């Protein structure tokens, strides 16, 4: 029994430790992609609200209690926020599924624990971030301080809203920064709820602010605001490029996590049962609205026909269903526009000469919703648009290769470099190919695994900088060199 009709509270901005309306009083509506019905009204931040949030974050960074806290106290606050997220897990996961359309299985069993783990992982780092004592000359005592950058502006996409809050906010706060976060207009609810929980956890006012609103207004105002020292962005390559140009005016530091079209390579000697499972979850997990989706499946010629036949059989069993049903594994796409974009790409594939061997159509659930069938395009050439462009939906492009060098050549023949998969039982080949692939993450005999301890980010036009892991802390800190004369 689903409860999509249960009311969702209107969303308010989180500024300076308070839930507030937009200065203009304006709101926008967020929708349930599975029912096409409105969920609630959400405060729509303008440049004025962004400015209020930045002022609050600046004051909190420069003169609030935040910079004066003992590291162990900051650690305790982050841990407390993790505990509150866990305590409210069912509510936040439900909000995420209602707002985004992803299966509740993913929101509750995968995404929510990831957010909790991320805050706990970075809470652990608070007391371990250290500078160095460097031997330069007996005439000086020389050391470095690892310091926060200041106010971090986080701009996040709609595909993993709550996970992105963890990835952007936890390391920034652990390092002593303050944050202004803008969730995507399509999916603001989980970030706003976590913002409320940050107040309950006792984070000082202004340390973590959330400004829901349009990218072209609130996002743009953040990138232009001189009071923000760094932008940490996850989203499309196109918007990332625009942000990079705009941020140059105020010389902001940047982390850009952008799009991908990741190769998932199956060699003839692979454990085929495992590879079939990996190819399927690699694209259909998260409805394929996953930046690291294994959306280009490269299969060795000698096993190609058998592999595609088995893949098609599996894809045809993956019918879209009610996202609130715990058994559902394929939810609704985030919006009507996204559904139309994805179906448009299926048509493009057909015109380019690919064959639709599974799915390819919209499939309503209970007569409604922006659902698209699990789709497999066979006979794709790596130069086609469906092989080179990010579709961001449950559409797999299958490409043939002959031998290791051809596999690596085709895998790298693309502007993106976010992730890749390699399926083989040959250990030497696995590691050799992992080195030759130009991507920020390579999964060998697995796919789509993430952990707060492992850095994640792109090569090439998939961006630069890293979320997660120790590397992410380098991206939210700066180093000061201190010279003390000892003579
Ligand atoms: P975008 O359209 O790029 O939007 C991302 C965020 O940027 C949203 O919050 C958006 O606000 C905001 N934005 C839009 N225009 C802006 C501007 N001029 N200035 C500042 N902010 C602006 O991406 P999306 O459609 O939400 O997400 C899908 C894309 O994200 C895919 O390409 C996917 O590959 C990528 N992605 C990458 C990763 C990683 S880790 N590399 C992870 C997830 C997603 P609005 O929502 O209001 O437009």
Describe the structure in your own words:
The protein is an alpha/beta fold and 487 residues long. Helix content is 39%, strand content 20%. The protein contains 15 helices and 21 strands. It has helices at residues 47-62, 71-87, 89-100, 104-126, 161-174, 189-201, 215-224, 237-247, 272-284, 304-316, 336-352, 385-388, 404-412, 427-436, 469-475; strands at residues 13-15, 18-20, 27-32, 37-43, 140-148, 151-155, 178-182, 208-210, 230-234, 253-257, 263-266, 296-300, 355-358, 375-378, 395-401, 416-417, 419-423, 441-444, 459-460, 463-464, 477-485. A 7-stranded mixed sheet has the order 13-14-15-12-11-17-18, with helices on both faces. A 6-stranded mixed sheet has the order 8-7-6-9-10-20, with helices on both faces. A two-stranded antiparallel sheet has the order 1-2. α6 links the parallel β7 and β8. It starts with 12 loop residues before the first strand and ends with a strand. The model has no long low-confidence stretch (mean pLDDT 97). Bound molecules: 7-thionicotinamide-adenine-dinucleotide phosphate.
